[in-house]
Recover the amino acids of this structure.
């Protein structure tokens, strides 16, 4: 996705701790055409890897919702996002996992209603970033624990210098990233990025 890589090169800022600020087009402000193009790119790449049928796209709130929705539109599939707080409208049994939050610190709970998808549903997991892989791994555990068939994992931006992909590899599903950040330099603000 050249358009995505170009936006990262032009707008991404490196924050302390190696965090990447992309609020101008992904994590705060959204560009509809770019976001919909992400969904189409995910479908194209997953279909090339044999993932042609998807029943549900799953993500975590809030930054994963836009690319997940775009992917759901591209596949004509439902979209489910894990909640970070259990709402009163989610009584009874729920699927629950915990994941560390690099941007907020601490551990974040993730809740999904047991009614969100059915056992046997082919599920595509889409998120904004792949860094350590722990949030995506927690979501993958929710999906498979509920009997869903994890078909693939997609991320808008992968920090290749972290261990996320290696953590997810044992799941045996395709992992697709639209953009790959190979290095960031806090001192200079440099971001080495390429198409994923």
């Amino acid at each position: 996705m050249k358009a995505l890589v170009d936006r990262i090169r032009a707008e991404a800022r490196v924050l302390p701790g190696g965090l990447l600020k992309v609020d101008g087009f992904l994590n705060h402000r959204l560009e509809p055409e770019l976001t919909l193009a992400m969904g189409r790119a995910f479908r194209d790449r997953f279909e090339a890897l044999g993932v042609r049928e998807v029943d549900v796209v799953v993500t975590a709130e809030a930054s994963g919702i836009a690319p997940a929705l775009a992917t759901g539109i591209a596949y004509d599939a439902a979209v489910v996002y894990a909640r970070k707080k259990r709402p009163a409208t989610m009584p009874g049994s729920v699927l629950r996992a915990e994941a560390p939050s690099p941007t907020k610190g601490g551990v974040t709970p993730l809740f999904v209603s047991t009614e969100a998808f059915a056992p046997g549903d082919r599920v595509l997991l889409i998120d904004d970033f792949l860094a350590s892989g722990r949030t995506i791994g927690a979501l993958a555990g929710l999906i498979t624990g509920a009997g869903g068939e994890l078909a693939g994992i997609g991320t808008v931006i992968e920090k290749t210098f972290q261990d996320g992909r290696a953590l997810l590899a044992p799941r045996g599903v395709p992992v697709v990233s639209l953009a790959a950040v190979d290095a960031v330099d806090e001192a200079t603000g440099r971001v080495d990025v390429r198409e994923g």
